[in-house]
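Instructor's aside before we start: the two examples that follow are unrelated to each other. I chose them only because their records fit on one page, so don't look for a connection. First example below.
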Amino acid sequence: MRPSPTRRTVLTATAAGAVALTATGTAEAAPASADRPPATAQRPTRELRALLREIDAARIEATVRRLVSFGTRHTLSVQDDPDRGIGAARDWLLAELNSYAAASGGRMTAELQSYVQEPAPRIPTPTKITNVVATLRGSVTPERVYVVSGHYDSRVTDVMDATSDAPGADDDASGVAVVLELARVMAKRRPASTIVFAAVAGEEQGLYGSAYLAQQLKAAGTDVQGMFTNDIVGSATADDGTRDPYTIRLFTEGVPSSETPEQAALRRSVGGENDSATRQLARFVRDVADNDATGMRVRVIYRRDRYLRGGDHIPFLERGYPAARFTEPAEDFAHQHQNVRVDDSGKQYGDLPEFCDFPFTARVAKVNAAALWTLAQAPGTPKNPRIITSNLTNSTSLTWARGPEPDLAGYEVVWRETTSPEWTHVLPVGDATTHEVDLSKDNVFFGVRAVNRSGLRSPVAFPSPQS
């Protein structure tokens, strides 16, 4: 095992700025730059670049326009008309996913996941809610699962209006188009871990479909190590006409929605408000998807969702799963939740395809693909990380459980100043389950990540104190 750098070396490097550690364990100061990638950044592999080149903006546009063609996809709309309503959209989505599964060599399956929602807010009568779900089974660690979703229901100004045209091009045919394109491209490949592609219903009525999907996974004891929802990812143009076509927002909560009183007390005592599993997932997305291969900047937002809004990642957060939401950089609310109309000034309202930017949505799909594919091919997030607090010392001892991956090469310890949003130091520690760093745990935040023989890294695991 390589020794840690000495405390003097670490403190000198930390004072100089962000630091990466060489293979010999010595610290090197990186140039100070607001645009410099985090020390934990991973360059895209040749395999990933080839996958990203297959993502097709024209196919994404065709999916959006096909979903719009069903007139309305309101959750309460007709379910047995072959041409109009949410039932027609449901059947088309299943057929599309089945066509991708046919090219998977048996690795992908597609199904309808239905239940009857009893009367509840925005659900006046018992209503069948159906998610359309494709599962691409992992070939090495299939028990580890990642989920990507978009919601295929739509609405107009009155959330209970189930008959008016509700095209829902941006909200959220765009997100569903991302999910379908990812499924199409990945179906032909062999991920190490399992990826679930979900078009969920009932979002506009209250996240019903996503809640059912999350609960089914939770009840089965599924090890979901990451979930992304794509909701309103179809346009780069704001309500004032300004454009930001190379940025995507990623909303990520800090304090976990599922936190128990005991966990809250522990967090308050040691910090970690910015180190939930979801925040680590967001850092991972920046590490692997904010680069020239996607052509995008990932703007991480430190909150669960926008004001007055909520998305399909929330039911996953509530059940203890790391989950985050992709949303376009600035929204135009004239093209969301609006009846299709032209006002007296000639302004067009309504969520219509002509207000979408399909090359932008294709780049959003690339960000998703980079994150999901790297997650599925890399080792899983380390389990049971602990920071030993039994003695008062000026060094730090860390432990963790070894992962099950057959290609696991070892681990890295990472750390940063408590005021830094990104990991600034990386130390290879070999194929071990414990390591001591000659640096006080009182002064910095530590984490651990796994590395496989291909050089792919997992998300960071934040340790809990162990006395």
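Example two begins here.
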Amino acid sequence: MVDADPPPQDTDPPPSAGAAERLLEELVRTTQEASSAELPEVLDRYAGAMGMGRAVVYLTDLQQRRLLPLAEDEPGLDVDASLAGWAYRTDALRVEAADTGGLLVWLPLVDGAERLGVLCLRMDTLDGLRLWRCRALASLLAPIVTSKRACIDTFARRTRTRPMQLHTEMLRAFLPPRSIGTGRVVSTAALEPAYELGGDAYDHSFTEDVLHATILDAMGHDLASGLTTSVAMAGCRNARRTGADLAELVATVDKALAQWLPDQFCTGIFTRLHMRTGVLRWANCGHPPPLLIRRHRLLDHALERTAEPPLGLPVGLAGETRHVYETSLEPGDRFLLYTDGVVESRDETGEPFGLERFADYIIRSTAAGQNATEVLRLLIHAVLEHQHDELTDDATILMVEWHPPGG
């Protein structure tokens, strides 16, 4: 339970450095113990005690179109048409005058590379000390939100705008965060349709100095498709966590699908990027080849190799060994994995979104200064708009940007 004794409410002047540190320590402990219903009140109470006014947490919905408040008495905000959305899109603080007087301070909530939403602080004045404390509060709050949303369904309910299909619920339970990153690399993903996803999935993780990134596309668009992708992803993770190399990993996935789902198969790409050197290794199992963008230009066929059979086929059809390819990236390179639903989505005239439009969109967004996570958010929305939000196939994109220090 949350402590019954509130911290002092005097906000003018704000507490001294020592008192503020004690309040922040108390805030971390108390928010960890708070339920989802108690969290807004606890956060608001402590923000006031530290001279930062009233606090409201907004989380982005699944499609990153809306910012939805944890406090139910607050309205939602449009990501593309609000200052709060500007803070979310640019990962930067924004300040505006409130209609009722005072200031609204919008801070992005980011856990690593994963954008969660924004924190709003409503206060009378803002000085250097308060600004520092605002940033510290947002930094502390982001990982707390991440830990809570993993086990509190209220967070999932607050970030959904409509019911989700059963097979999508199952598949989403296996997905990692949309974005992960270090000082050397960012990996970010987007997939649609958010509530009717069938057999597409992505995976990314780190081991020591290596980024692992995977994309999968199962046959069909139903519960069996989701189960196929889930088994493939579980096989991939199991092999990865036992230290298997890429060829052994693919063999593990092949064997798992052949054993447990002999009538199903899926395509996929498995990659490993050595973050210190930029050496990229990959295996392509019947999937569209990865794309490589360098210095705002698509390198045609740079990662295209001989086609391999899909995953889950009998050994005699798939071949006894899978080929693993290798290349070296340059600082600033972006490589992309995608499913065919991205480039094959068609508008009412039958015109496909197409590979050229796909690559050009990323190049132009990057040149405009958009960060990797925002580039992908805009791109997946463009794919949806091309088909008037009625996709006939899953569309999934995973983009990796390598930017070593000094590169």
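The two ends are 49 Å apart (CA to CA).
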